[in-house]
Amino acid sequence: MQKTLADMANYLIRLLPKKIPDDLALDTIFNDIAHTRSMREGVGAFRDFMYCVYKHLVLVGARYDKPKKEAHPFVDGTNIAPAYPFLCSIASILTNIGIHGELCENGQTITLANTDALIATNNISRAKLTASKTTDCLLFLIECGLQVEGIELGADKPCLPILTPIAFSYPKNAAMLIGLKVMAIAQCQLVTSSIQDILLRCDYRALANAEIDIFATLKDLILPLSDDVQETVIRLHEEYMSHGYKCTYYALRFFFRFTYYCRSKELWRLNISLKNGCTISIKSTNSNKYPDVVKKLPQQLQDKIAKGYGCGKKLGITDSCDGGCRGFRVAIDDNFVGIYDNVKAWIDAEMQYMFKK
Fold it and tell me: Which CA distances in Å does 178 have to 91, 99, 101, 137?
């Protein structure tokens, strides 16, 4: 069953950083926007604004929800355009305000020259927005505290003025406008093949335009989990990294993957997604070679192994692909704390056999 727009908003709330560091590092591409201190405050204010946006979406999301049939039952919701078009439009409009808008001298407003700049294509939306979609988005943002001047939004048939300037302000905290410009520029100039969304997540780490701190990023993303589960995930990460193993990080829109390798061979993955939450995927293809270890595992893990590795459809145990080719998936929740030692014993046994030759 597809997740609703409200579900997605709740997920994005969990992804927002809990706090923006006081010593936030910023790339030189932002130097012309404002003083460093003002930009740091602005990013924090933008984070707070997006929290308000998502909380409001949780309340009124059904108003804009247009669920579409999923192309694949186990594809994580990485592309918001087809699944959540309203959210995509919101992100596109915010990006264009930040990219094309001019901050006034006192920083109280951002002004766009015309509506063409407001509905322009960008790396979030590849198509210009219609007048009705733009109006819906602006009315929603007004409900979230943004003020808009220069467009008549109350008309029965929306018509966007071509030449009239449009001014945006945020009386609750004008610093947000600076943060919006920073995040919009980052979204358009700092996205990479492994980090494809910055603005909606308020991904402050991307603003430094430097090598990713994988451990710090992992700790950020697991913050919504309970303290015990966080400690267990960190313990698992540190135990393997202490042996000199490699970990890579990949973020496709709103799907996050930490992959752990030994001698270039994948051992396991830690995944975070809207559909499946936080899970670990173990690519165990040799479990039949160490039955003594398998017998000692909890029944829930033995049951997974008994079904076999690979696509459930090909194995004849499901009617459609169950994502089995990605590995045996185990939820990282409160139950994971109790089976941690068993999971580690399973991974270690797989690894020992993998390199036995």
Answer: 16, 11, 11, 21
